[in-house]
């Protein structure tokens, strides 16, 4: 039985090493080796289990542009990464042209604030 358990353990370790080497070949693995494990926007530090929350953001938003020097990458936490992509979507919506313009709000919730405050003083 001990031999069988050792064989299973050896297979598990070998598979884990292959998976680790495969991850290291990805741009994420390369970026994690290249840069400190800190979000480039909020400055939050990552290690251990929460390292999965650190993502690689492509500065030019082109996921096929992966230069080996990492010049198109920055590490961002999940929240900052989502925020960055939302900003890009909103910027694109603003540049759609007159047919697809998103109308801006005309309501001003503070328009009568001064008069309301003056009324409370009386």
Brief sketch in words of this structure:
The protein has about 120 residues and is mostly helical. The protein has helices at about 1-25, 25-35, 80-95, 115-120; strands at about 55-60, 75.
Textual characterization of the structure:
This protein has 4 helices and 2 strands. By secondary structure, it is mainly α. The chain has one domain: His-Me finger endonuclease fold. 7% of the residues are buried.
Tally of DSSP helical segments:
4
Order of strands across the widest beta sheet?
Answer: 1-2
Tally of strands: 2
Which CATH architecture? Answer: 3-Layer(aba) Sandwich
The chain-level structural class is mainly alpha
Distance between the termini: 90 Å
List unreliable stretches of 5+ residues.
97-102
Element pattern in H and E: HHEEHH
Please report the first level of CATH classification, the CATH class.
Alpha Beta
Radius of gyration: 25 Å
Largest sheet: 2 strands, antiparallel
The percentage of residues in β strands lies in 5-15%
Mean pLDDT: 82
| Shape verdict | elongated
Q: Helical residue percent?
A: 40-55%
């Amino acid at each position: 039985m001990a031999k069988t358990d050792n064989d299973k353990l050896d297979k598990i370790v070998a598979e884990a090493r292959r998976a680790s080497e495969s991850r290291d070949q990805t741009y994420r693995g390369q970026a994690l080796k290249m840069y400190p494990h800190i979000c480039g926007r909020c400055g939050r530090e990552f290690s251990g289990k929460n390292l999965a929350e650190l993502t690689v953001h492509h500065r030019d938003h082109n996921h096929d542009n992966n230069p080996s020097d990492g010049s198109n990458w920055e590490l961002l936490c999940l929240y900052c990464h989502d925020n960055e992509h939302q900003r890009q979507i909103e910027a694109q919506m603003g540049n759609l042209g007159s047919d697809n313009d998103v109308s801006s709000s005309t309501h001003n919730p503070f328009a009568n604030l001064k008069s309301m405050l003056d009324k409370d003083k009386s």
